[in-house]
Design goal:
By secondary structure, the chain is an alpha/beta fold. It has 2 domains: 126 residues, 3-Layer(aba) Sandwich (Rossmann fold), CATH 3.40.50; 141 residues, NAD(P)-binding Rossmann-like Domain (Rossmann fold, 3-Layer(aba) Sandwich), CATH 3.40.50. The strands form 2 sheets. A 6-stranded mixed sheet has the order 2-1-3-5-6-4, sandwiched between helices. The chain has a 6-stranded parallel sheet with strand order 9-8-7-10-11-12, with helices on both faces. Helix 9 links the parallel strand 11 and strand 12.
Length: 282
């Protein structure tokens, strides 16, 4: 009797991964498209990242998503980078072909698609972004390239470290203005911006609170939280209370996953069906 071929593997690399909805999204997508793959969690601390990425090829993976805190480090561990991943110096998707691993950043397209759908025809000349890591760089790049944003406030706990990190990105500084704001001076940057984005873990369970009051927000602003669980985050509550229109990270998660799915399989994810199942799961 001929043995059944085991399913191919994909997964998500991060630490921690308790909150991750990526297995739900991708396994549902594989099932709906009748594809022979299984998506798993790979929860590993930074010290084990190098060995883990290297092992994916031998274990037969077709690819993997990468989440906090590994996005920037992963960009240094692959054989090649897509132009966008190279521009922001961060990777959230690994694609394996033969024994080679290529890094992509589908956060950029995922954020652009979700913001365009949420805030149709709005422009964002000035943006305030909480954070200065790989997610913040992807958001900044998406805003610069897709929404013509030219003024940025990066709100960070250590602005000197943040400035050094972001200024080393290949896209940084070419045609836009940016300043780096201490966490305690966040209200000034929020008040001065059309769009405010949380690209940090702040607001997740057990994390610290934001250094701004609802009064920093106003009607006409758009606020985006990349956190998707809970659906209504502390950041979104602040923004809504101040009069801003607020969006969570669930649609971005889904859209970046759809791009990764197609990179791995060559098939389009059935986004509408997956979205409905995802919403029903909350």
């Amino acid at each position: 009797m001929k043995k059944a071929k085991p399913p191919g593997l994909a997964g998500i690399i991060g630490y921690p991964l308790d909150h991750s909805l990526s297995p739900f999204i991708h396994n549902l997508g594989f099932a709906l498209k009748k594809l022979p793959y299984v998506f798993v969690k790979i929860e590993i601390p930074p010290a084990r990242l190098n060995r883990t990425v290297g092992a994916l090829v031998d274990l037969g993976f077709i690819g993997a998503n990468v989440t906090m805190p590994h996005k920037e480090a992963s960009a240094r561990l692959v054989d090649a980078l897509s132009p966008e991943a190279r521009a922001v110096g961060a990777v959230n998707t690994l694609v394996i072909s033969g024994r080679k691993i290529k890094g992509y950043n589908t956060d950029i397209e995922g954020f652009a698609r979700s913001l365009k759908a949420f805030a149709r025809d709005r422009s964002f000349p000035t943006a305030a972004i909480f954070g200065a890591g790989g997610a913040a760089a992807a958001v900044g790049y998406a805003l610069f390239r897709r929404f013509q944003t030219r003024h940025f406030h990066f709100i960070c706990r250590n602005w000197r470290k943040a400035k050094k990190n972001l200024s080393e990105k290949p896209f940084f500084g070419k045609g836009f203005w940016a300043d780096f704001v201490d966490w305690e001076d966040a209200e000034r940057a929020v008040r001065a911006s059309n769009l405010i984005v949380n690209a940090t873990p702040v607001g997740m369970e057990g994390k610290k609170t934001f250094p701004v009051s609802p009064a920093a927000f106003r009607f006409g602003q758009t606020a985006c939280d990349l956190i998707y669980n809970p659906p209504l985050t502390p950041f979104m509550r602040l923004a809504k209370k101040g009069g801003a229109k607020a969006m969570g990270g669930l649609e971005m998660l889904l859209q970046q996953a759809a791009v990764s799915f197609e990179l791995w399989t060559g098939e389009k994810m059935p986004v509408e069906k997956v979205r409905q199942e995802l919403l029903d799961s909350f």
